Amino acid sequence: MNRRTAGDLALTEVGIGAAQFGNLYRETTDEASTAAVDAAWVAGVRYFDTAPHYGLGLSERRLGDALQGKPRDEFVISTKVGRLLVPNPGGEGAFDGDFLVPATTRREWDLSRDGIRRSLHDSLERLGLDRVDVLYLHDPDEHEQQALSEALPAMIELRDEGVVKAVGAGMNQSAMLARFAERLDIDIVMLAGRYTLLEQGALDDLLPAAQANGVSVVAAAIYNSGLLATARIRPDAHYNYGAVPRELLERTGRIAELCDDFGITIPDAAVAFPLRHPAVASVVIGTRTERHVSEAAARHRTEVPEEFWSTLVQHGLLDERAEVAHHG
């Protein structure tokens, strides 16, 4: 699989997001998680992303176990900081929200220098690794000033010490990520759901800021909560974790019709689209099973005709600036 540079790293064009390893919405097993990682490895994927938030550390433990025995210098792994996992007495009998794990610990915001370092230390223990390559500040939406003044500088310090190779932030919005890229010496950001076949708002702020400041972008949540994950739009599909607005459902249907005309599927196009922008280094696709991984790899291998993209623009279904950026 092709790789793209992100600072001192080389990321495969497809990465595996391990949130579902943390029992997101439904339970999975250690064996299924390992099988998914093994399938990704066979497909050439060498970038894996996780976070303490995913299943109160369960995702990190499962991903670390699945990577044991793989040559450490051959893969890139990212995790996240900003919230510590602390004891939660009495939580044994309850589940942790969307993650079906016992709520024996809880998340506690800590963007201090010591909190950032402790979070990384705890993640390394759960992963069973001596280092991670990329460290993201996770969803600091309500903590922008402390992110700018304390958390991200502490992460930059870790990078400059050689503890990690790249630092940045991961969020569901592009505007704050753009400000981080403009104001701090970060290397990489993860943008979830805001630069996809359906949404190109990041063209207004993050993508030009990233290009101007040498910051790489990893595009995540490229299926927009599943709306773009199937060749035929499911009646129970979600968008941004909720009901799909009627106008957006109609627009998705029009894109699907054009996909049919070009002999491809919406998921094929959804994987290909973010990678057309020169600032995007990888697309991270959330997977739970070996089958999910195989489908993602097959979609990445699908050749999407160049005329398809210009046709979307002609029909008002794609921001023309995306094509201008692609063609330089």
TrEMBL record:
Residues covered by the NADP-dependent oxidoreductase domain: 14-314
Name of the protein in question: Aldo/keto reductase
Organism name: Microbacterium pullorum
